[in-house]
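Quick one, T. Sequence first:
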Amino acid sequence: MGNPEWVALAGAVVLCAGVGIAAQERGLPRDVTPAMIEEGRALFRGAGLCGACHGRDGTGVLGPSLADTLWLHSTGSYEEIVRQIVTGVPQSQARGGVMMPPRGGSTMSDAQVRAVAAYVWRLSHPAT
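Structure tokens:
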């Protein structure tokens, strides 16, 4: 019948591929889930400190709006949003005039950053 370890490994690969395909079929970036978006929304408005500059709804206050298709420091892809949150925007590169500290000045974990990025991505890519 086959080696049980290989059968289990093959099943895991198929399952992981299925998750990525399911996300893409929903119009979401690979590995992004609706649960991540909801977690990201809560972090954005709370412990992530994002709402302090970008506004509670992401339409901008001190920092730029994240709820439109105009991106100042990237093309707005999910992975670029993740990188932007992790690295921040130094004052010397801040096109809007306001710097952003790495992780928005918060202590978010990598998983939390990915959740916030999922929410920010969703703000500029409304569900159809």
